[in-house]
Amino acid sequence: MTSPETPLRDPGAAGPGWRIGVLYSRSGVSGTTESQHFFGTVLAVEEINALGGVLGRPLEPIAYDPRSDCEEYRRLAARLLLDDEVNVIFGGCTSHCRKAMLPVVERSNSLLWYASVYEGFEYSPNVIYTGAAPNQGSMQLAAYLIQHCGSRIFLVGADYIYPRETNRIMRETVEEHGGDILDETYLPLDCDESDILEVVQDIARIRPDVVFSTLIGSDAQRFYQRYHEAGLAAANIPIASLTMTEAEVAEVGPALCVGHITAATYFNTVATPGNAHFLARWRERFGDRPANVYAETSYSQVHLFARALQRVGALDTRKLVQAVHKVGFDAPDGRLSILAENNHCVLTPRIGVCRPDGSFDIVWESGVPVKPDPYLTAFGLDEFWLK
User: Which of 50, 132, 157, 332 could join 275 via S-S bond, C-beta 3.0 to 4.6 A?
Assistant: First the structure.
């Protein structure tokens, strides 16, 4: 693989291009997840350039691998903005890496496109948030678990802001509706095998109705493997997650994940014309590698950016943000649009159950797209109770 210090430029670009930064990890603890972000971005850039680019000029990506390290994210974001003279970055997955980039992005008045589910409670005029806010997945998942799995819940997560804040929301929501959080434990990123085994043993001893996991990347994959090896199964104690997608399931092995639950705004089983086109192009480009919500969201946000850029005709942050509020894109998961009041995306929450082939049966989806409420001003489970 190319060194993280080496820019990756579109070899088909000719003439003056629109330079954009791409910061997704291809290695490290979140490498599997962030590679999906990267591939979705690549697919969109190639599609746009094959159609003549934007206003006759190709998108010219400059990409680095931050290796799942928040300090590398900060350093490489600064390198893109200062040395490479880029002012639009597509990048970031985990919240601690987003927050490492944010001061650099804001100081330079640049624009970050962030395509990951996150814990909410943030707004920046220099960020477009295309991933799900808590009211577009977390709340619906809490309702589903109480209604269909039981109210005795075990929380396990990685030790950084996204899992802790997401688990806080889950705890408050479950307890508000008479449920019990039986335990809440956190493991360091890239944790020891003994840490995972200890959590699995605790779950086997406590016997909750369901486990809610906010472990990520390779740690989550090892957790599902050790869970299966311990004789625990979805039929008795399912694992629910916001981050265990088709790509992670493929790494774990679908047979080990059957029956486990994920809430996301996209599964590759979504039945829309836009998804049929997306998957056809995806398979043509990447073969049997499964597409997931990270790939789809990253792909869609690049197309949305291209529409805003076409309106503005310049990489002007203020004008691009204004323009993105006025454009839309028929994404694989539905119509994509950004709210002017908070720069977050209108999305359709869905809940899926993993099946033997590694895809997900969609067991519930919102009847209408849900406006983002990143600060949970309408906090409370009643409006999310699943019909």
Answer: 332
